[in-house]
Amino acid sequence: MQNVYLFIQVKKDLEDKIGQKSVYNALTFRVTDTEIQYIAKVNVGEDECAHVKISQTLPCYGEEVKLVDYQFPKKMLDIIEPF
Predict the structure, then answer these.
(1) Which domain of life is it from (predicted)?
(2) Does a structural domain hold residue 81?
(3) How many distinct structural domains can be found in the chain?
């Protein structure tokens, strides 16, 4: 459930960047490296998705969560790959 919470924190940033106001939920998450970074496939309506990279600093540095990068548009069947 922590991964869903991470996405909720960057949801507005993604909506602002892709011009969509219908971002619903993150479908999958993968840890990308030893720094706490995640990649998520996010459904933004119908068969359209965005792939987002989310960074979270370690607790000792404040646990800041931010949207690092995104790929849009993507389709539901597009495989999520590190970027």
Answers:
(1) Eukaryota
(2) no
(3) 1
